[in-house]
Design a protein that fits this description.
Number of strands of chain B: 2
Number of strands of chain A: 13
Number of helices of chain B: 14
Helix content of chain A: 40-55%
CATH architecture of the largest domain in chain A: 3-Layer(aba) Sandwich
Largest sheet of chain B: 2 strands, antiparallel
Low-confidence stretches of chain A: 1-38
Oligomer: heterodimer
Shape of chain A: elongated
Order of helices and strands of chain A: HHEHEHEHEHEEHEHEHEHEHEHEE
CATH topology of chain B: ABC transporter involved in vitamin B12 uptake, BtuC
Structural class of chain A: alpha/beta
Mean pLDDT of chain B: 87
CATH superfamily of the largest domain in chain A: Response regulator
CATH topology of the largest domain in chain A: Rossmann fold
Strand content of chain A: 15-25%
Radius of gyration of chain B: 20 Å
Strand order of the largest sheet of chain A: 1-12-6-5-4-2-3
Largest interface: A-B, 59 and 73 residues
CATH class of chain B: Mainly Alpha
CATH class of the largest domain in chain A: Alpha Beta
Helix content of chain B: over 70%
CATH architecture of chain B: Orthogonal Bundle
Number of domains of chain A: 2
Chain lengths: 354, 343
């Protein structure tokens, strides 16, 4: 008898999973449902589809934004164990504080937590966010939440990575193609006679890795005396980067310069160059401009880094959301360009990140 | 002997079920008290959706764990299946429905490979699936050169990630899969054989169960369900990511273990795994609502896994403390053996 009861209770439990928890809701809002309501149309129509304008210019023309009462900006970021995202989060928090509004940060465990980020973004939106900022791990991963937010009249801005295609979403960040290209330009300037160069790539699935790599290759096409002899992924991992660079130096002893798609990996490459006894003889260009990279530039282990401006990216996202809430037109891409830091200008950016 | 055994087992399982459900109710109640949004229908639905992929992978893993094995390749299978089906749809014009079928079949095939490595080459499950975890992940990278696949057809997304009258399709899928798994495990000879193999492989073999065949089928089931989960993942994020499934390996095993699956084999509960997945989903969701920083979240989640399993052990009377004596001793092999004898 009680076996039967037990069995039925298991079936009931399975059914509860479906009906009890899920079925009692009255608001269907699947990914296909977004984008039709009035709020969505309002916000979306304010975002100028093909506009690319530097943040400084937008700020000049629209002026500092005003904050509605009780406004909260929510930023769904990636893992804070990558300090880059902490700097973006700091930028959001600092700008919110300056303008007198509340801010909340939502982070995930690691760079592969795509659905965790999606679930957290959904939870965040349920917490009365007036503005939703996000740095999606996968370019389309948060689209369903973005649609839901826009439908509720909540402005959405993507910070730094993974510029998507959803209309109405503002992008604040650099052009990763230009970032990669400026690394090629810098190397060409330092190596007027040309030579062999190598690239260490980030995670092959990441849009930043794809675009920085493409941008670097585009840059090399302009400088025909530079030859890309090796290019491999180290999945944003410092140790892997060291192993790969060691192998590259063994296979191609004539490598004159490395372009590395983030600073963490560049530290690994620096160790490989040091072990090979070639510190100072090989140019090493990183990307991001994190504080440790600047120390390494001062120490001579790193030649340069193509620095982004995470704090400005965060602030631009906050401003974009507030401008949209105030009914002002905002370009779909607020550009926060990257710039090269080397031994000449490193003292100007001694601490933190711009 | 045959009369006494079922009585013991009945009591043991009943108390166990209370252990895990009690923990679940406690967790939901605590979050409900701490945050007003937590117990709203919309949020509970979000939790169920968040738990779905984990639940489906966890159900397959539960079968494997019951046989005393482990499947470390489930995350990679989810990734490679998502990549294969998405590529077929976007680059080869395969219809979404066919891509779904091919995807599940590919997952089954991956599982069969695991099963054959374990039964034919006599590799320990941990080693065999550790190897295939890397191989299947590599296949995902090779298929698209590491790049994600975008532009997934709308029909595919609607098929797996839409809402029918407010009920998410993927939650319905979990319910159906859950009921089917329960029927297979508790109402079929195959299910009894699975439990018997986990109780004692030797006894199962001696009583005429084709142990190798049962094992291959169990890993195939695990692979097939991981494949299904990989397809749902694609529909959730509108893209196939080469490493999309990797975070689910440990959480799916955690869901099964929270739900009462014993890594030593012989024990595991379908409803328990579903509740385990719900608990993990509720934790992520609840801690976000409470605005707990993500680093602390890991500590809380880990602690809850430990506490939930400890509660479960407590409900069983800490069998580990009285090893080999009294009613706490696992007897899972016995009923199946009894039936095998009477056949």
């Amino acid at each position: 008898m009680s076996r039967t009861i037990l069995r039925s209770s298991a079936v009931v439990a399975a059914a509860v999973f479906a009906v009890g928890l899920a079925g009692c809701s009255a608001t269907p809002d699947g990914p296909a449902a977004g984008g039709s309501s009035e709020g969505s149309a309002n916000i979306t129509s304010l975002v100028q589809a093909d506009g690319v304008t530097p943040y400084d210019d937008v700020l000049k023309s629209l002026g500092a934004p005003t904050v509605p009462a009780d406004a909260t900006v929510c930023y769904v970021t990636r893992t804070l164990s990558n300090e880059y995202w902490s700097f973006v989060a700091d930028g959001v928090e600092k700008r919110a504080k300056e303008l007198g509004m509340k801010s909340q940060i939502f982070a995930v465990n690691d760079e592969s937590s795509i659905t965790e980020q999606l679930d957290k973004a959904k939870s965040a939106l349920n917490q009365n966010c007036s503005i939703l900022l996000a740095s999606p791990i996968s370019a389309t991963g948060l689209d369903s939440v973005f649609s839901e937010a826009l439908a509720k009249g909540v402005p959405v801005a993507v910070l730094n990575d993974a510029k998507g295609t959803l209309p109405g979403v503002v992008y604040s960040g650099p052009d990763s193609l230009t970032t990669g290209e400026s690394a090629a330009d810098f190397i060409s300037e330092k190596l007027p006679n040309g030579g062999d160069v190598a690239m260490v790539e980030g995670d092959p699935g990441s849009s930043n890795a794809l675009n920085r790599g493409q941008g670097f290759k585009n840059g090399l096409e302009k400088h025909t005396n530079l030859k890309l002899v090796a290019s491999q992924t180290a999945n944003w991992d410092q140790t892997k980067a060291q192993d790969i660079a060691t192998a590259m130096l063994t296979a191609n002893p004539d490598i004159k310069a490395f372009y590395v798609q983030n600073d963490g990996m560049a530290f690994g490459v620096a160790t490989a160059i040091e072990r090979a006894g070639k510190t100072g003889q090989i140019l090493l260009v990183g990307t991001d401009g994190i504080p440790q990279a600047k120390k390494e530039i001062q120490n001579g282990n790193l030649t340069a880094t193509v620095s982004q401006k995470p704090g400005v990216e965060g602030a631009a996202g906050v401003d974009a959301g507030l401008w949209l809430l105030a009914g002002k037109q905002v370009p779909a891409w607020i550009e926060v360009p990257a710039f090269v830091i080397d031994s000449e200008n490193v003292s100007q950016y001694a601490t933190g990140m711009p | 002997m045959n009369k006494a055994a079922p009585v013991r087992e009945r009591r043991r399982i009943n108390v166990q079920e209370v252990g895990i459900y009690g923990a679940a109710i406690l967790i939901f109640a605590i979050f409900g008290i701490l945050n007003n949004n937590f117990l709203t229908p919309g949020n509970l639905r979000d939790i169920a959706v968040a738990a779905s992929i984990n639940a489906i992978i966890g159900l397959g893993v539960t079968f494997v764990i019951i046989t005393g094995g482990i499947d470390l390749s489930v995350g990679s299978i989810a990734s490679v299946v998502g990549i294969i089906s998405a590529t077929l749809m976007t680059a080869n014009g395969v219809s979404p429905f066919l891509a779904l079928i091919i995807g599940i079949a590919a997952g089954l095939a991956c599982g069969v490979v695991n099963g054959l490595l374990i039964t034919r080459l006599k590799l320990p499950p941990f080693i065999a699936t550790l190897g295939t975890m890397s191989i299947f992940q590599g296949l995902a990278y090779v298929t698209t050169d590491g790049k994600p696949v975008y532009n997934i057809p709308q029909e595919f997304i609607l098929m797996l990630n839409s809402y029918i009258g407010g009920v998410p399709v993927m939650v319905v899928i979990v319910a159906v899969v859950g009921i089917l798994c329960w029927l297979v495990l508790r109402r079929t000879v195959f299910g009894e054989n699975v439990i018997a193999v986990g109780g004692s492989e030797e006894t199962a073999w001696l009583s005429g169960i084709r142990v190798n065949r049962v094992k291959v089928m169990v890993y195939a089931l695990s692979g097939g369900l991981a494949g299904l989960a990989g397809l749902i993942l694609v529909a959730r994020i509108n893209a196939a990511q080469t490493e999309g499934g990797s975070p689910y390996l440990l959480t799916a095993i955690a869901a099964a273990v929270i739900g009462g699956a014993n890594l030593m084999g012989g024990e595991g509960r379908i409803a328990g795994t579903l509740v385990g997945a719900l608990i993990l989903g509720a934790l992520t969701n609840g801690l976000v609502l409470l605005n707990v920083p993500s680093f602390y979240e890991q500590i809380v989640t880990g602690s809850v896994v430990v506490i939930a399993v400890a509660l479960d052990q407590g409900a069983k009377g800490w069998p580990i403390l009285k090893r080999g004596t009294g009613p706490g001793t696992p007897v899972a092999g016995e009923p199946a053996l009894a039936e095998a004898e009477t056949k």
